[in-house]
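>> Question from a student workshop board

For tomorrow's exercise we were told to take the sequence and the ligand below, predict the bound structure, and bring the output to class. My setup keeps failing. Could a helper post the expected result so I can at least see what it should look like? The ligand is nicotinamide-adenine-dinucleotide.
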Amino acid sequence: MKALVWHGKEDIRCDTVTDPEIQDPRDAIIKVTSCAICGSDLHLFHNFIPGMLPGDIMGHETMGEVVEVGSGVDGKLKKGDRIVVPFTIICGECDQCKRGNFSVCETTNRKRHLADKAFGHATAGLFGYTHLTGGYPGGQAEYLRVPYADATHIKVPAGIPDEQLLFLSDIFPTGWQAAAQCDIEPTDTVAIWGCGPVGQMAIRSAILLGANQVIAIDCLPERLSMAEAGGATVINFETESVVERLQELTDGRGPEKCIDCVGMESHVMPSLPDTLLDRAKQMVMVESDRPHVLREMIYVCRPGGIISVPGVYSGLSDMLPMGAFMNKGLTMRTGQTHVNRWTDDLLRRIEEGEIDPSFVITHTVPLEQGPEMYQVFRDKRDSCVKVVLKP
Ligand SMILES: NC(=O)c1ccc[n+]([C@@H]2O[C@H](COP(=O)([O-])OP(=O)(O)OC[C@H]3O[C@@H](n4cnc5c(N)ncnc54)[C@H](O)[C@@H]3O)[C@@H](O)[C@H]2O)c1
Ligand SMILES: [Zn+2]
Ligand SMILES: [Zn+2]
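>> Workshop helper replied:
Here is what the output should look like for this input. Compare the format with yours to find the bug.
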């Protein structure tokens, strides 16, 4: 089959690889009908997250049709079912899965010794996302083996196009969880850094969850326009002071809730000297992340407020203002998304027409054009916000 394969830094190719097969009774195989490129894939493209090996298949936002099921799937799935695949592989049975903490499932990371060393404790297996999370082949491919398929799936009905359902795999629940863990109250201002696909979903989610005011921050005009269309007031960090504007828009109190939809690769700009220092430290490998947004959020957040971090960080972040964080009594909530915790509710909202997540798609191309689309998405060329690939 054809698949997008990681060969090294900024080197992803569409290769012919061996078709996946059932390896365990709980596996299923799907024929992929749609898949997408995520901002998290860019961290791998740049080789900023350790644990990728040449030959690894990329992709963790995937849906398709079940074409084969193992004997242990136990009637939960059958041939012909249409499923969205959550990016977190879950067993459904362990203590964490029972609590709904699916992204830290205790069973599915088959290379847990690596993650135990790096993080203290292993987290769940993820598709197409480094050997720290199990080294599972991803879904930017014609076929995907879904391990623990009896639990790791979201069944979706016929009659709704792929484009509306695909993002249940990741970015829609990710934006939703980011907003939900802010405990939004009707008087709250929610400030959201980053208007990429995750930021866009967080904006819509914060509004659906009843925020009084949503403020979105980025520097790309087309992404800021999309944020405005979703109901946000926008700040362009290249032309305005983020801190001053946020103070103005909140009568000097600061936003009660702050969401980081940027993560470890914050823009590097001479007007933000800390980003230059982070970049230099990254190059000599004494710091892994560029946490400018975390610093800014801690500084500007209203005392007693909540900082929600769906943006991905990989390792060590320097110069976090712990003094401000502690003395202001802030709370930070983070995590890879517990996808299946949210998807019943979100699927219902899509079915009832409350939200159509396909608004974020700007490019739909054949899988073979994937390598080129990694560049376009990374460089934000051609007003690219979200790429869907069709195998
Ligand atoms: N927690 C999860 O489960 C989960 C799931 C999906 C994605 N993510 C992460 O979410 C983040 C965003 O993903 P995406 O797909 O939207 O990526 P993206 O790269 O398309 O978007 C990031 C946006 O941040 C903007 N940005 C950069 N520096 C900024 C700054 N200083 N202030 C404000 N905006 C800034 C960029 O211009 C860009 O529009 C990534 O780190 C990704 O890994 C996490
Ligand atoms: Zn993702
Ligand atoms: Zn589990």
